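For reproducibility, we list the full input for the adenosine-5'-diphosphate complex.
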Amino acid sequence: MGGSDDRRNVKATPDAGVEAEATAKHQPAEDEELNRKLSHIKHKILVLSGKGGVGKSSVAAGLAVDLAKRGKRVAVLDIDIHGPSIPRLLGVEGERVVGTGGSIHPVVSSTGVGVMSMGLLLQGRDEAVIWRGPLKYGVIKQFLRDVEWGDLDYLIVDSPPGTGDEPLSVAQLIKGVDGALIVTTPQALSTNDVRRSIGFSRQLHLPILGVIENMSGFVCPSCGTKVDVFGSGGGASMAEDMGVPFLGSIPIDPELVKACDAGSLGPFLAGGTPGATAFAAAVAKLIANIEGGSNKEAEMHSEPTARQAGAAPDPSTASTQAGEGRKIAVPVTGGKLSAHFGHCEEFVIFSPKETSGGTAVEAEVVEVLEAPPHQPGLLPAWLNERGVNMVIAGGMGSRAQELFSQAGVEVMVGAASTDPKEIVQSYLDGTLVAGQNVCDH
Ligand code: ADP
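The corresponding predicted structure, in tokenized form, follows.
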């Protein structure tokens, strides 16, 4: 980052917002420039969380530092426009971004990680930014296109919590994002936020690289005993339920708080505390998945998921089909399979349950959900949010099947029997017979 005469400080001004709005419009030459820049970056990871305060930014920053320690060329783009915390976490708070000849340069932290954040453009740390969606899209596009990222192995994008404009913009702007890393905590698991993040990623065809459960228990520094303050194992079973990779649990670690405040995650990661060890293990798993190419989600989403009942189940997925944690929904009216999928009275949810000492699998009713008022396009997300990963219907229109596929919910159509339990049981037994896909609602 050498200086030059036209080097200038880049400031966030209302004008920057106006310029951003202009760039939100389709401009092929600029898109070409964006794609050219991004083609120099091997891996792009979007870090998401359903809610704030779960340690998402800490994980994003720690991941970047860990990768840099492994000799990777890494940068972090902080798109949390309203509450940017990456500059503090990476020890570059208060530094100013500089521009040369129409480009802006990331600030480079002492760990070698490049940083670009609205926090580096604002005048003071308490300055607030109030921008609407199109402006955010424009600013994020400018960040991606006008910043001199150079050749990178990894770009880590830290989003604000939730499923708002910012992660949506990144998913739209970056072709070929490796996927989303989702951070949660045991407390956040009790809400549906994390499932919403998974549903959001699936709708955008973003593979889910994995879930990290942060602040999971506390290891007593004196005796080493782990106390599960908010219960344990929830993250792993939720991940299994939703069919996404679980990368590990990181305990509450006072050393991590100090390291975050001091912007010194490098020494923390080398410190060998329970938090640091768990952190390193989760990151190692993530990197192995990405660089080893064993990304379960990416494979899962490479093909449409709907298929006709009666088609032989794929033996490679047979164990998952019979796996505990699977939720299969059947639309029902008057106790029988509903002919009109979108207008059924209720959804009966089944899970496979092992019986006879593990030698047989029985369809067990785990829940009955009253169907929401009819609204086109609503059901895929509605069922996905309730943990449903498969629907067996008598008939369903092709558009609805497509929407389910996008939401990551597998669909089988053409079930001939009218007894919901019989249908799911025959599916689990691999004997479900195809009927006609009669409904096109
Ligand atoms: P988010 O990005 O989800 O809003 P942050 O990464 O800003 O969350 O973290 C919120 C706070 O929690 C910070 O003070 C951070 O130091 C702290 N924190 C994060 N992970 C842990 C952990 N495993 N143990 C203790 N404190 C943590």
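The pocket of adenosine-5'-diphosphate is lined by residues 49, 52-58, 85, 214-215, 250, 252-253, 256-257, 260, 275 (CB under 6 Å). The chain has two domains: 8-300, 304-429. Both points were considered when choosing residues for closer inspection.
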